[in-house]
């Protein structure tokens, strides 16, 4: 254990001086400091003083009458601690807490030496204060001024302490909220990814059922089947049409996608897919029905062209009629001018536009990417009230994938942007009284709030869904895509279960409360800006932080309407009859006491 040696006083005094061992440093290897083996390594012997009665009496002037000076000043032990006692104290949890508190604010380097030196410093301060006090005793007026100045200084220190305390307290609460919100939003992301997979799987099953019992189709095959159905619809009008005839019947299929795509690769893949499907059906003895009537959000057109030759034995000499322009005109009537123009033909200025779809519009532009209304599913037949409800056109997904840079996204997510969500949540009832709801309902609402705070990361991702490329060269993007999907799916299922429990005890009107975060039934896409989208008057692009700030200001539902400065703005999306029930600000009950 460290050395502790008490030095006998040279003259009568209440001052006690001891020699103690402290961990040696390079500064102690000067040839003048005595070094020896000690507790855990080499120790340097230094002098430690204690405060005598004279110094303590002087220091009492710095404290209030009710303060005990021993609570603020280190006082040495009467007798040195034994090795057994020291070992026991080092394992004591209370001692560990005390050391943790010190080390959380002070560096551990030379901690022992600085602690022992504090007493010596106090002795010098007390001596100087005593000398000044004696000099000022002759002038009572000056002493009064000094006393008042000391009181002012004390009050300032107290005010500063109180301010610092509450600032730290508020910051701590915000950090805890932000951490919970971040976790929640992270979980939402996984749910949305699974939702997309479920949608794709259901579409495959719906469109493949009745055609053949083979494996499910990918998006390219689905597009082709839809296009083939449209071609068969026109051909069925010919009385000699045979839906089972071979592909080489003199009719060429030319893929014409004026609104969604003009990639020749899609055509080649589609033609090969159809041929493989029909060959597999023939070999399996499966007959092909005339058509499967399904609706698709992507409108792909097939133009049937005749070569003037009929296949021998087909029994048909008629040519398929040319496709009318009615379908094209219908597409144009439900799309904006920029959407009809297509992303490939937009200039830099047009890529900065965010179009607002009017009544009957099903295709519009958002930063150079075509959007359409969200697709209803079994899990989400409609979007949660107030949240954005649009999805990118599937043919434009590659555009969004290219806009996401892995390193930039990694740096942005490292800032934990979801913490802003926790800091803006309202903690009071806008439309209800705790007493009217009852203890059981309030307890259920508090559990919901706690759950959402714990999963705030998933919630943020659900309202800021960035399209990621699962085949990206960026390892971070690939891992984030998978983790986000798992997290989202996990939270989505928990949300559904908790909503069912909450509905059993709480009225539906509680969902009008701004303090109750809503988990959107459908993900809200975050459309990143293109590289040609630069800040006005500069040549610099918008950072992800700047983009998300603009997005949240433009669409406040993404932050649960918490970023608004007034209560009226926070509830503006609610029906008018609900808004009339707003409780005045000073009369509201806290949501989570």
TrEMBL record:
Residues 248-263 have a biased composition (Acidic residues). Residues 203-222, 229-335 are annotated as: Disordered. This is Unnamed protein product. It comes from the Eukaryota. Residues 290-308, 318-331 have a biased composition (Basic residues). It comes from Phytophthora fragariaefolia. Residues 229-247 have a biased composition (Basic and acidic residues).
């Amino acid at each position: 254990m460290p050395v502790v040696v008490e030095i006998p006083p040279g003259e009568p005094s209440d001052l006690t001086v001891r020699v103690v061992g402290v961990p040696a440093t390079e500064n102690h290897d000067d040839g003048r400091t005595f070094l020896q083996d000690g507790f855990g390594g080499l120790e340097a012997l230094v002098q430690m003083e204690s405060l005598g009665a004279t110094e303590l009496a002087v220091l009492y002037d710095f404290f209030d009458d009710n303060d005990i000076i021993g609570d603020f000043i280190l006082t040495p032990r009467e007798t040195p601690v034994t090795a057994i006692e020291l070992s026991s104290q080092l394992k004591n949890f209370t001692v560990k807490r005390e050391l943790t508190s010190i080390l959380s604010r002070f560096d551990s380097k030379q901690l022992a030496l600085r602690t022992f030196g504090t007493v010596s410093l106090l002795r010098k301060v007390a001596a100087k204060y005593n000398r000044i006090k004696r000099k000022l005793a002759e002038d009572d007026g000056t002493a009064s001024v000094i006393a008042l100045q000391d009181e002012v200084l004390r009050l300032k220190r107290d005010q500063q302490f109180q301010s610092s305390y509450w600032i730290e307290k508020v910051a701590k609460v915000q950090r805890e909220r932000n951490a919970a919100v971040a976790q929640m939003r992270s979980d939402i992301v996984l749910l949305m990814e699974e939702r997309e997979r479920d949608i794709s799987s259901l579409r495959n099953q719906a469109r493949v059922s009745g055609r053949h019992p083979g494996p499910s189709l990918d998006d390219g095959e689905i597009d082709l089947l839809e296009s083939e159905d449209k071609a068969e619809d026109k051909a069925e009008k010919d009385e000699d049409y045979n839906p089972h005839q071979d592909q080489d019947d003199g009719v060429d299929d030319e893929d014409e996608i004026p609104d969604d795509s003009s990639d020749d690769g899609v055509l080649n893949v589609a033609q090969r897919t159809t041929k493989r499907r029909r060959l597999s059906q023939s070999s399996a003895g499966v007959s092909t029905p005339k058509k499967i009537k399904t609706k698709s959000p992507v409108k792909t057109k097939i133009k049937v062209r005749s070569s003037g030759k009929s296949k021998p034995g087909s029994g048909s000499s008629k040519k398929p009629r040319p496709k009318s322009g009615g379908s094209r005109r219908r597409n144009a009537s439900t799309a904006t001018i920029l959407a009809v123009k297509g992303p490939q033909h937009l200039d830099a200025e047009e890529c900065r536009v965010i179009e607002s779809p009017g009544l009957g519009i099903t295709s519009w532009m958002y930063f150079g990417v075509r959007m359409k209304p969200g697709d209803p599913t079994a899990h989400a037949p409609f979007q949660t009230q107030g949240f954005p409800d649009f999805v990118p056109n599937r043919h434009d997904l590659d555009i969004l994938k290219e806009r996401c840079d892995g390193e930039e996204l990694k740096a942005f997510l490292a800032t934990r942007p979801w913490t802003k969500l926790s800091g803006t949540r309202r903690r009071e009832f806008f439309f209800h009284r705790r007493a009217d709801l009852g203890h059981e309902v309030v307890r259920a609402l508090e559990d919901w709030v706690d759950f959402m705070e714990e999963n705030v990361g998933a919630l943020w991702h659900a309202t800021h869904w960035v399209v990621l490329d699962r085949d990206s060269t960026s390892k971070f993007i690939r891992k984030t895509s998978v983790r986000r999907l798992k997290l989202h799916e996990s939270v989505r299922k928990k949300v559904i279960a908790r909503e069912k429990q909450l509905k059993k005890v709480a009225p539906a009107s509680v969902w009008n409360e701004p303090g109750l975060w809503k988990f959107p039934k459908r993900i809200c896409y975050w459309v990143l800006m293109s590289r040609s989208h630069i800040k006005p008057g500069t040549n610099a692009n918008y950072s992800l932080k700047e983009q998300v700030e603009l997005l949240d200001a433009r669409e406040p539902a993404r932050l649960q309407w918490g970023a608004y400065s007034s209560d009226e703005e926070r509830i503006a999306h609610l029906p008018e009859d609900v808004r009339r029930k707003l409780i005045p600000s000073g009369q509201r009950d806290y949501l989570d006491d």
